[in-house]
Amino acid sequence: MHYVLNAAQMKRCDLTTIETLGIASLVLQERAALSVCKYINDESPEPGAQRSLPDKGQVRLYAGVGNNGADALACARILSARGYRPLVLLFGDEARATQETRAQMKSLNALGIKLLRQQDARDDKALRERPVCVVDGLIGIGLHRAPEGAMAEAIRDINALGEQGVRVIAIDIPSGVNADDGAVPGEAVRADLTVTFAFRKAGQLLYPGASYSGKLVCEDIGIPEASLPEDTPPAAFCYLRAEEVPLPKRRPDGNKGTFGKVLLMAGCETIGGAAILAAQAAFRGGAGMVRVLTARANRDALLQTVPEALIDVYDKDITDKELEALCETACAWADVIVAGPGIGTDALSLGILRTLFTKGKTPMVLDADALNLLSMTENGLMDFAREYAKKDYGMVLTPHVREFCRLYAAAFDRRISAEECKANLMQYPKELAEKLGAVVLCKDARSVAAAPAADGDSDFPPLYLNISGNEGMATAGSGDVLAGLTGALIAGGVEAFDAACSAAFLHGHAGDLAAAEKGTRVMTATDISRALTTVLRL
């Protein structure tokens, strides 16, 4: 896993590394600058050969007076030694320049490297030359408000060069992007590449900040995990590769029963595909057995498309006694219950869900229409869910943003908009998880999974930020695949929170493979499901 920090946490890591671990700030800055420069030119000159280097062109560096600007000034010195002609434009009140910025300015002056103040930033003839690259070191993670005046104008100049095809590299985070939540309150640099240091920041991964960051790389400059504040856990964590994801152990002497049994309540008389997609994903996720509880109308389609599945069907006129017996038998068989894909929100579906809450004694995954029923406060299902969560079997809710808004409103008696939810994606899922006592996986362009705090644990519950996936996954049935996959991981023995995190990453990774093969415009949920077999081989 990889930690994701907010601005305050990153600043504390810097301070601990400098003051407690004894690594000088100028040393960290030098490593940071070297990391950035290698993405401009990977070939360092031989010692003593600098004067014979050919002219590699102008690199234009925009620097503020804080330490982000000091990084840019250090880059200018290194680039000069490698045959580039750095042109540094300095913005901000020099009286407020940090000690590190002053030290870097002194070095540039000694080397005769050109440095323009903001008042000269439009008159110098060197600005008429097209640079080979632009480096943004204006603000960094210290953004507190929308850039104004000369700073905003500098950002517009950088973006204008980017629109002309000049490569733009941001140091740490694009200027104008909030490091905590990815908000862009005003002008912001649109980078082709962002080089960040030690840990990824939430604002680089959350939208809209992610769309301004371009390709994101994280470089080790000597700030260790030991510098993380002990009293405050990281803002979140993420996975980057499939091999990092916790998966159920597969015993060589196992059988279909030991590899997990998924009970899937899915599909109604008018919606059958959701049951098929969820069942297929459960098998592809490693479940040994899948049992589908569905309307009779879906039986033939399921037999043809998922012949491996067991099928329990019910009719519209099923009696309460028959329904109770059907659910009791199915629940006694299952290792996990997945309920909601395509079930509708009628009285029959509500009755089945209530019975599952009453008879179930296993972890439960609630998706789609199960969540819609849960958010209808007049039916009392929310109380059933809370009581079930108290039994500590494990419960996972997988709402997309609009479903999340309805659940949040039902739980807190306060309406929120989808836009408000997206702006508070690092906070609201934690609040709902605590309120319901369940794992909440809020699905969006960036999905977030939150777990309730353990009993007696005063720390904030863990938060997972998923960065796999693409816009092609916004297609009908994609959530059904995720629900089936989550159920399979839980059935195999993965704890509810870990299963939600793993499923989100693997589902997104499968979506990325499907997009590479089909393209984001035409890919379908079936393509995502089929790609799971490739992802899980990794």
Range of strand content: 15-25%
CATH secondary-structure class of the largest domain: Alpha Beta
User: Strand order, biggest sheet?
Assistant: 13-12-11-14-15-16-17-18-19
What's the total count of β strands?
19
CATH superfamily (homologous) name of the largest domain: Ribokinase
- Here the CATH topology of the largest domain equals UDP-N-acetylmuramoyl-L-alanine:D-glutamate ligase
Oligomeric nature of the chains: single chain
Total number of helices = 19
Low-pLDDT residue spans: 42-53, 455-459
Biggest sheet overview = 9 strands, mixed
Helix % is: 40-55%
Chain-averaged pLDDT? 93
What would CATH call the architecture of the largest domain? 3-Layer(aba) Sandwich
**Terminal CA distance:** 16 Å
Q: What's the alpha carbon Rg, rounded to whole Å?
A: 27 Å
Total number of domains: 2
Q: Choose one word for the global shape.
A: elongated
Structural class computed from helices and strand pairing: alpha/beta
